[in-house]
Specification:
single chain; alpha/beta; Rossmann fold; 7-stranded parallel beta sheet; 8 helices; 7 strands; 45% helix
């Protein structure tokens, strides 16, 4: 049995949709006070309302996590509304596709500023509150793309996600004396709203690349983040957990064909 997280204060960035929304709803379900962070106030408020309607406690907050001032305001809002910051789920990220040769400097900077610099800024903004309590949980949403795999058009995204893990490893060492852990969830192909317009054929091809023959759910990622936030995970830091249904395991398409033939 895990120790209850009820009453703890959690910030979830990029929480208006997809994985971030799933994380925010899951933490709300277990009784956390959730600051739902999105670039748009109305979208943040909508998810906060979902949490409240389910009996949880939440507040929407608008912030661009690539801006230091916004991150500082975000941390102050969590302290003002909920009395502190116990957990940070640094989930916000963008992934506009652009292949090398067509990718512009602005394209590259936009992804790095949000995905990697944004991780640094959100963590930095939350540190004073966590250090004061000498306790904290930081969970990054990385990816298998970049640290383990690659995909055409996502070299900037892959660099940002691999960079998050490099940041995590040193941050976990620096923050260990304060009782603060830093870990990462690394999703594979996850069913989110972003796939709605891609069509059945596209989704079927994605499913065929996964040994479990299905896409993951946002709850699969949210549950991994929830585990890292527990007291029971207090001795785990600087680690990434892959949640991908075995997607990275086959050495080739032939391996999956052999699996089907078994």
């Amino acid at each position: 049995m895990f120790t209850s997280l009820r009453g703890r204060s959690v910030i979830v960035t990029g929480a208006s949709k997809g994985i971030g929304r799933g994380i925010a709803l899951r933490f709300g379900e277990v009784g956390c006070n959730v600051l739902v962070v999105s670039r748009k106030q109305a979208e943040a408020d909508s998810v906060a309302a979902e949490i409240a309607e389910a009996g949880g406690s939440a507040k929407g907050f608008a912030a661009d996590i690539s801006r230091q001032a916004d991150c500082g305001a975000m941390a102050r809002a969590a302290i003002d509304h909920f009395g502190g910051i116990d957990i940070l789920c640094a989930n916000a990220g963008i992934f506009p596709a652009a292949k090398l040769g067509a990718m512009t400097e602005a394209d590259f900077d936009a992804v790095i500023n949000t995905n990697l610099k944004g991780t640094f800024l959100t963590v930095s903004a939350c540190l004073p509150a966590m250090k004061a309590r000498r306790n904290g949980r930081i969970v990054l949403t990385s990816s298998i793309t970049g640290p383990i795999t690659g995909y055409p058009g996502w070299s900037h995204y892959g660099a940002s996600k691999a960079g998050q893990l490099g940041f995590m490893r040193t941050a976990s060492i620096e923050l260990a004396p304060y009782g603060i852990t830093v870990n990462a969830v690394m999703p594979g192909n996850i069913a989110t709203e972003g796939l709605d317009g891609m069509g059945a054929d596209y989704i079927r091809k994605m499913e065929q690349s996964v040994p479990m023959r299905r896409l993951g759910s946002v709850n699969d990622i949210a549950n991994a983040a929830l585990f890292f936030a527990t007291d029971e995970a207090a001795y785990i830091t600087g680690q990434g957990i892959v949640v991908d249904g075995g997607q990275i395991l086959p050495e080739s398409l032939a391996a999956l064909e052999e699996m089907d033939a078994a």
